Amino acid sequence: MPFSAERLQRNLEALAFVAPEVARWLKGQRADPNAAETLRRHCCRRKQNLPAESAREGDITLVLGGGLLDEVSDFLRRMPAGHQVFLLEPRAWLLLAALGRHDLSGHLGQEDLVIMAPGEASLEEALSRNPQLALGANVRLVHLYLAADEPACRQASAALYHLWGRALCARDLALSCESHSAENLVGNLVYAAFMGAWSSLAGALRGAPAVLLLAGPGLEPAIEALRGHLGGAALFCDDEALPAILNAGLTPTAAGVTRCQAGPLLGFDHPNLPLVPLVAEEIAHSATLAAHPGSVFPCLGPRGTALGPLAGMAKWFTAQHHPLPRLAELALLAGCAPLIVAGGDMADPTGDLCMSAVGGGLTQANMAQAAAAGAFGRVLARYDQTAFNAGQGLELPRTVAVDLLEVAKRLGGPGQPPRLAALEGETLLSPAELDAYGQALGQAALTATRFWQRAAAPLADYPRRAGRQAHLWLNAADALFVALSDQAAADPMLSALLEGCLVRAFRRRHRLACWAASRSLPVEEAARQLQSCLEEMRARVGKLAGGLQKMSQDMRRLAHSLGRVGPCWGRPPGKASA
Q: Is the pTM above the cut of 0.90?
C-alpha cells in the first residue's frame, strides 16, 4: 500500500491519545520514503512467521521489529477478538513509513495493538500501563525484522528484555513460591532480633575491591585465578557457588540466598561453613537459614519488614530475584569499589533471546539471565557506579570487560577475604528496641486482619444472592476487589504475600474481559470467578495475620524477659524459635 500523509496523521493522533510517550518519541522524526528499499538493503529479513491461526482470545503476541507492518496488519485483521498485539519497532523512520502505509487507528484506539517506544523510561511506562504483558499466562514473542547487528535494535531489545524479564521473573516467583512465601517471611523475622549492629554495615569496607563470584561454567577457573590474591579484597558469592569455594580453601565474606525453596546449602556441611554469614532475601527458604550454623542477615525492607528501630534499613535494599544484584547491593552499601563479576558466564545456548555478548558479538540467553543483568545495572546506576565483568556470555550493563588473571594481580596479597563484623556479630536488639519492633509487627498484623475481614465480607452473601441478584453482588464485590487490590499493591508486605493471588485474579478478570468482547458472558460465571478471587485473597491474608501476631507476641515477650534479667548479647539458645 502506498504511503499516505493523511493515514500517518490519523495513526499519530490515535497514538497521542493511548500512548503519549510513543507520540513524543516520533515527534520531529521523518519517514523514509524509500523504506522498503532501505529495509532490503539492510538485509533485515523476516526471522519468524506470524500466523493468525494459532492466536487465541486472551493471549498476547509481542512483535519485535515490525518492519513495514505488512504482516502485523494482516495478523490484526485475522486474529480472534480478545487477542492483543504489542509492537516494538525501534527505528523511527521505519515505523513512520509503516504507519503511513496502514490505517491502524482503529486497532490503536481499541488497544488491540499497543505500540511501544524504545528507551527504558518509555518501556517502563508501557509495561505499567499494560500489566497483562507481564502477568498474562500466554505471551508469544516473535522476531520479524529486528536486525540484531544494528545498535538501535540491540539496545532497544536489551532494554525490553531487562524490564520485561524482571517482571516475568517476579511473576513466576510469586506463582511458584507463594505456598512458602508467607511461612518464609514470618519465619525469617526472628533474625531481626539479632540485628543490633545493622547500622555499622554502611561503609564498613570502604575502598576495598569486591569480587562477586557466581556458580557457572567459569567458577573453577575463577577460583584458581583468585587464589592467593584475596588478602585485601572482599569475596561475595551465591549459595550455589559456596560449596566449591569452601572446598577450595577460601572463606568468602558473605554468601547470598534469594531462592524461596530448598537449595544446595540445605544439608551441606563444611568445617568453615559457620564462618560464612548468609545474606538472605526476606522470603528466602526459612529452613535453610535456620539450619545454617553461622549468622544470618536478612535484607529487611523491600517487603515491609524494616519496622520500628530497623526502619532505617528500608532505603538500603530493593527486592531481588537473583543473587548477582543482591550481592552487588550489599557490596556497594559496604563501600566496596570496584566490583568484579566472575564465574557465572551468563549465557544459555537454548535461550530464546539474542543479546550483546562480552567483548562484542552476540550470545543466546534466557529471560531470567536478562532480568538479572537488568537488575544488576539498576543497582549500579543507583550508586552511580560501574563495574568490571570478568566472565563470558551476556554483556552486563554499566560494566567493562576485563581479564580476571590480570585484575586478580591488583586485588591484594595472600590471605583470606576480610570479614564484616556487622554481618557476624548477631548483636541482640535492646529490650526497648525489641518491644518497639514487636509493636510494629502487631500493627502490621492488625492491618492484615482488617484486610482479611474486608475480603471475607461479601462471601457470606454470595449463595443467597445468586440468580437474579447476582449482578448486584458482582458489581459491589468487583468494586471491593479493585479497592483491596489497590490497598495490597500499596502495602509492601501485603503485596509480597498476595502477588501470586493477584496474578491469578488479574488473569481471571482479563480472561473474562476477553470473553465478554467476543461472546455473551453469563453474570453467574463472572460472579463465581470473582468469588474465587476474594476467597483466595481472604485465606492468604488470614494466614499472614496469624503469623505476624504470633511473632509480635514472641518479640514483646522476649523484650519483657530481657528487661527483667538484663541485656543479653550473642546467640541465645533456641534462636530459631525465639
A: no
